[in-house]
Design goal:
4 strands; 3 helices; Alpha-Beta Plaits; about 25% strand; alpha+beta
Length: about 90
């Protein structure tokens, strides 16, 4: 499994709903943002299609991007974030 960072710039409610149904139990939303972390074996392209950023089921006017996270990260955030990353990474 890999962790992907999804940033949303429009249609946050609609895309967020697709994330929650497509990746139930495998995502973490950063509080008060439109940024999601998704743990999945899918590729970036597949994630974009499942959540409505690309493909036949693209949500009209949806803007956002999906990035694969590597093992090099740092910062200061809530313990919930670090715990989720640890669980999702299998560390």
């Amino acid at each position: 499994m890999s962790i992907f960072i999804t940033t949303l710039q429009s249609k946050e409610e609609e895309i967020g709903s697709k994330i929650s149904t497509s990746y139930e139990g495998s995502y973490y939303r950063l509080p008060d943002t439109s940024v999601y972390l998704i743990s999945t074996a899918d590729f970036s392209e597949e994630i974009c299609e499942k959540i409505g950023l690309k493909g036949e089921d693209r949500i009209e006017g949806a803007l956002g991007a999906v990035f694969k996270m590597n093992s090099s990260y740092a910062g200061y955030s809530t313990q919930n974030l670090w715990d989720w990353i640890e669980r999702a990474s299998g560390e």
